[in-house]
Amino acid sequence: MTEITITRVARLPDPFRIERFLSNPKLGPRTLFFSGGSALNGVAQCLKRYTHNSIHLVTPFDSGGSSQGLRIAFNMPAIGDLRSRLMALADETVLGHPDVFRLFTHRFSKTASQVDLAAELESMIAGTHPLVEAIEQPMRTLIQNQLGMFHAARPIDFDLRGASIGNLILAGGYLNQNQQLEPIIFLVAKLVGVQGTVRAVADDNLHLGADLEDGEVVIGQHLLTGKEHPPLVSPIRNLFLNRGLTGKEPAEAVFPDRNRSLIQSADLICYAPGSFYTSLIANLLPNGVGKAIAARTVPKVYVPGTGQDPETGTMSVADKVQTLLAYLRRDAGSDCPVDRLLNFVIVDQAVPEKETEGLQALGLSVLRLDLVSKASAPYYAPVPLCETLVSLT
């Protein structure tokens, strides 16, 4: 196989490309995203109009929210972000499986008693619950089996209040598949007709840790985001992977060959908006990510998050770009050229010029576009962002 580089002039947005992808999303571009959390879900849902081939590498290192109880109970990777991205990409047409989608997005009551919730779970396992009963065979039996595995293994004190049924199914599948995420993610993708590819960026069961500028060490994603706990009082100096939550014990994760192959097939690589450290940089920590990105000659785009991010404090867009490049170069090599790692920084036209000072000197193109609407503010409007990304492919 011979690889050559072709240069072209791109219009943003490009009406021809947009119309072509809208008319046949099955042949749409392979846009690859490094992301986590829910920040990209609206964009992912919209992107299905343009392509059914998007690729989403999602961090499994979270330790809060809906994943926390399952991680503690089963010593497993975080699955909440994986489940939410699978649902964002699910086929919502009549050709999809709306009954399966309804079950996966259902949550137990936050106020019901544990006895009542356990009875509701048992009715799902038995197939008599309306949400399960509505699902056709053989999908119904597959789902019952995963829920049954979760139920049999769950600690007696596991709190079912507010639990996502999709998470419980994924957890049961993880246990059912010898503690491997990949097989159950693949199965769920088929069950809900995912129009794209969703993968955990690594298989390792690890947590996030951070060294702060003031010398403090913080272990656990839930303590870093500033959402479930007060924001950090000192900037993050170094983000790392950690074995557990009880003390600093740095660990390494390996970027799987299957994910490296996905990067090799991508038409565009996007460092997506969201929590800067715990949703984006966390995905770049496994060994091999930076090298795989540098080896692929396609447009590489950074779309910084909008609004306040407790993880970054007063960092400018330029500061974030420099930090992003620094983490990529840890793996790709300190002398790796910028253009092998990043080409474009896309910001809304309202972002002040001083936020991006110095980026052009690095050889980066800063694209200022109308991406935030009155209805979407302070976040990106999905349609213009999707159309910008597919126009660059």
UniProtKB/TrEMBL annotation:
Coiled coil regions, renumbered to chain: none
One Gene Ontology molecular-function label: LPPG:FO 2-phospho-L-lactate transferase activity
SUPFAM superfamilies for the chain: CofD-like
Domain of life: Bacteria
Name assigned to this protein: GAK system CofD-like protein
Organism field: Roseibium aggregatum
